[in-house]
Amino acid sequence: MDVVVVHGSAADIETPFLVLPIFEEQAEPSGATRMVDDLLGGEIARLIADNEISGSLGEVTVLHVAGGSAVRARRVAVVGLGKRDELAPENVRIAAASAARRARDLRLNALATVVHGADDGALDPLEVCRVTVEATLMALYTYEAQRQEPPKTRPPERLVVVEADADRARGFEAVAATARETAEVINRVRDLSVAPGNVVTPAVLAERAREVADRHGIEITVFGKDELAAKGMHAILAVNAGSVLPPVLVSMRYTAPGATRTLAVVGKGITFDSGGISIKPAEHMEFMRHDMTGAATVIGFVDLAARTKLPVNVLGVFAATENLPSGSSYKPGDVYRAYNGKTMEIVNTDAEGRVILSDALAWTAEQKPDAIIDLATLTGACQVALGDHATGLFSNDQRLADLLLQAGEVSGDRCWQMPLWPVYGEQIKTSMADVRNTGGRRAGAITAALFLKEFVDGTPWAHLDIAGTAYADGEQKWVAPYNPRPGATGVGVRLLWHFARAWKDA
Ligand code: BES
Ligand code: MN
Ligand code: ZN
Question: Which fold has domain 209-276+305-503?
Fold first, then answer.
């Protein structure tokens, strides 16, 4: 989608669909909405008075503009921002996404918008510009790759951000461009996440990573099965043992000119998780095609770092394999040695994410990054604990955790921190090995994180359990209109980008 910033009056924009905001319980329109409404003869004000426009969050009311009007748009879409005193960037995202979806439903090829709610200084206009562009592009995402039938509607191809103030408009250019890159990367991550397990295999993930690396001239290394064996990465090989497809460990290095710090991001890339010998129930198992979302996010984040010239070095790493039952599968009771020499007793083959991440994290720690953040659809327990609205955050470094919590608020990818108290570690002790791969039902997300901690060698590290936030399964009571339903959210991309920029100077 094209995104352009135009300096001028909203009334002068030639567009099939001009989006203007209104607050709930607002007696009359204000700002740009007021200016346009005056030219429309007060039609919006009348609709408010008649209770046809309430301004409730995400409400979209489309008015047709008569020929010969001083307003050049064909339609004006009045979008509700909710209550003025509750205004937050998330409300702007919801409003922008709702308006964009309406434009698509009307089969329009373009839309224009003012930057909502920034008039009275409640929000930073640059931030509002960013979230408006991000939410619009995210809202128009659909996954069509597997259907023969062409999509029923084509999404709008052009978004115009119109701004009356010349200085502001100039400032919007860079922000809008970055927001567009961000949303495009998110949509590519969604493509990978939602794609079927027979389509996105470990080799395909490696290929996607290579495409990104080649496009930006980024250094990439792909370890195949033999290299994993030669390096002693027996944990990845154990999970892979039941699959006919070979595993990979991929690392990508984005180097920023003049940067001194390196952020490592590590992703879980289980391209299908059946549970293995500890097989999962059949119901909903198809959603385990999403179990490589951490890896997809790593590829996306490295891509975004290069596209936006992020001022920190990024080492992106992911391990990928299927987890399947077969005569050659790894088994409960088996013991394997990971890359850092630690041994693990396998109690449940369905706790495979932490197993492949053990090798990936140990290898990453050996590269001596300044911090490691891993992303993984790791535990059903985390989904139970936090539902769909927060990513579980676990860290051995409170400064890192605080920066991620802040980045979560700013980016919209909210996180909630859980404890890593050593006492929980009792649950993953065993006499059979250095550690065991499950700690029982209680505190399952925490014991999984404590297992990972064994492999980071004291590096400042944070673990993001995205099991609840990576995709919408259609059963959720509330899915934000910028997220596809059902489908993958692309969680983590915006979070990491905002985090990295704050971390650089922290
Ligand atoms: N990929 C799953 C976790 C998951 C569950 C992600 C639901 C998204 C939605 C993971 O590999 C898994 O199976 N975890 C087990 C761990 C248990 C066996 C200790 C779980 O959560 O049940
Ligand atoms: Mn599993
Ligand atoms: Zn899994």
Answer: Aminopeptidase (3.40.630)
Q: Tell me the angle at which helices 89-105 and 125-139 cross, rounded to the nearest 10 degrees.
A: 40
Six-digit token string for 93: 């995202």
> Is 273 close to ligand 1, i.e. is its CB under 6 Å away?
yes
- CATH topology identical between 2-190 and 209-276+305-503: no
Q: Measured from the CA of 447, which atom of ligand 1 is nearest?
A: 19
| β-sheet bridge partners, residue 323 | 273
Q: Is 154 a catalytic residue?
A: no
**121 contacts: CB under 8 Å, gap ≥ 6:** none
Substitution candidate for ligand 1 out of 268, 270, 350, 391 with most atoms within 8 A of CB: 350
Q: Nearest ligand, CA of residue 380?
A: 1
Domain ranges of the chain: 2-190, 209-276+305-503
Over residues 161-170, mean pLDDT: 96
How many residues are present in the chain? 506
Q: How far is 42 from 25, CA to CA, in rounded Å?
A: 17
- Write the CATH number of the domain with boundaries 2-190: 3.40.220.10
The residue annotated as part of the active site, out of 93, 188, 268, 354, is 354
| pLDDT digits 0-9 by tens, 85-128 | 999 999 999 999 999 999 999 999 999 999 987 777 789 999 99
Say yes or no to pLDDT of 59 above 80: yes
- Closest-lying ligand to the alpha carbon of 348? 1
Tokens 């989006």 identify what position?
19
Ligand 3 midpoint to CA 270 (Å): 6
Count of CB atoms situated within 10 Å of the CB of 121 = 8
Predicted confidence band of residue 150 (pLDDT cuts 50, 70, 90): confident
pLDDT digits (tens, 9 = 90+) for 387-437: 999 999 999 999 999 999 999 999 999 999 999 999 999 999 999 999 999
